[in-house]
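Cross-check.
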Amino acid sequence: MKPEPSSQQDRALSLLKQRGMARLFEFIDAGVTAAAVSRMKAKGLITQLGRGLYQLPDADLDANHTLAEAAKHVPKGVVCLGSALAFHELTDTIPSRVWMAIGPKDRHSRITHPPLQLVRFKLEFLHAGVETHVIEGVSVNIYNPAKTVVDLFRYRQPAGMRYRHSPGLNLAIEGLREALRTRKATPSEITDYAIKAGIWKVMQPYMEAMTANA
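Predicted model, tokenized:
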């Protein structure tokens, strides 16, 4: 067993090497004070990404860097809708914010970076179709392609408080078409999620049109 780093600086650097990113409370849990974190930031030994979130200055940035940041800020959240679609390379549209699903009663801290759009899912929808991907050392929960497409159809409505930032129907159709074309989701997988979500009647005409000559 390796000996525990002796100094707070060593502990902090070791933590960041292990986890990719760390929030202030993670440093404190590891025995590193807020003052020590501030000193390391002033010396350029660590970089502050946003409120209470830090990374090594020479860390390799992934194309999905903001998803890792969002996951650290909202650990119970799941990357969804437009952000999940872009992660799975099923659209050329780059979301201006990170879409994350949280539970109906989950609390979240207010942050300005990265820009977040949180949507509340019922628990049966929240926990279905979740994959875990490691981005810059951070475990990020992301919905699989089939679940993502179905969720986009569920949130297609353009009006009402729940849908005030809806990605819209066009993105849902694009996601469905690309998921089928690239075979990242099968018709049966999509149908199963759609039936469970109560959205099958809406999706059925699009599914039939896109699979008619398959």
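The first strand starts at residue 21 and ends at 23. The two ends are 57 Å apart (CA to CA). Passed to J.P. for a second look.
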